[in-house]
Write a structure and sequence with these properties.
Shape: elongated
Helix content: 25-40%
Largest sheet: 5 strands, mixed
Order of helices and strands: EEHEEEEEHHHHHHH
Number of helices: 8
Number of strands: 7
Distance between the termini: 62 Å
Strand order of the largest sheet: 2-1-5-3-4
Strand content: 5-15%
Oligomer: single chain
Radius of gyration: 20 Å
């Protein structure tokens, strides 16, 4: 395939960005989108130009690093996939493809397509963990009976990889799907009950500090989430938050 790429280039957070146009030939439909970007960078390097900076790691749809806005959609036109799992057969010969970084106040641009998503780390540090009793009287987690329905829902929430597609898809740049997934995976399990109230209060407070917007139940986050995290988690987080806030008064 022959493609026209319009790629966002920005030297640093303080520089003004712009879309640059590149022509790419001999793109195989079997390539992943990131492999296509590798080909572009090889071409740029051979021409003495600076390659496009973009995040990537496992390239197996697990790490959530490959944050790209492709033709106006986080991770591109496919569903249930990350950018590294998006294949070029989703595009046609002669297509023009726009590649931009995720845009949100909470995700400032570092360079080109790389954004700073450390806000997600700070939200998790605020409460996305379970304290463990190390006094010698610890109980094996596998010995605690948990209803299968609760275990399944907790596991579904835990599949969130923190890629930020939910934020990029939301018109308000809300992080509530991400935060609710992290709250839900513990709220549904006995191990998470002890710190449940403080956890949700701390994580929501940190989310607001990071500058993410509010949820208006548009549902774009669930549609674009590569792991299919359900909006039910947002409802659960709201219930957890209200219970915690009322008991704190």
């Amino acid at each position: 395939m022959k493609l026209t790429l319009k790629v966002w280039r920005q030297k640093s957070a303080n520089d003004k960005g712009r879309l640059e146009t590149y022509q790419l030939d001999n793109v195989s439909e079997h390539m992943s989108f990131l492999e296509m970007m590798d080909v572009l960078n090889e071409q740029l390097i051979s021409e003495g130009q600076e390659p496009v900076a973009f995040d990537h790691d496992c390239r197996e749809g697990i790490c959530g690093m490959c944050s790209m806005h492709i033709n106006g959609e986080p991770h591109g036109p496919d569903r249930g996939v990350t950018t590294c799992q998006l294949h070029m057969r989703k595009f046609k010969d002669g297509d023009t493809i726009y590649v931009e970084p995720f845009r949100a106040k909470g995700f400032p641009i570092i360079k080109d397509l790389v954004v700073d998503r450390s806000a997600f780390d700070r939200i998790q540090h605020a409460g996305g963990f379970v304290s463990v009793n190390t006094s010698g009287n610890t109980q094996d987690a596998n010995a605690i009976p948990i209803p299968k329905d609760d275990a399944d829902k907790a596991f579904d929430a835990a599949t969130c990889i923190g890629c930020g597609a939910c934020v990029a898809a939301c018109k308000n740049a809300s992080a509530m799907l991400f935060v609710s997934a992290k709250v839900s995976q513990f709220a549904l399990l006995p191990q998470g009950k002890v710190e449940a109230k403080q956890r949700v209060l701390n994580m929501v407070e940190q989310m607001d500090k990071e500058g993410f917007g509010n949820c208006t139940n548009t549902g774009a986050c669930e549609v674009e989430c590569p792991k299919g995290i359900s909006l039910e988690n947002i409802a659960r987080m709201n219930r957890e938050f209200l219970k915690a806030a009322c008991s704190a008064e």
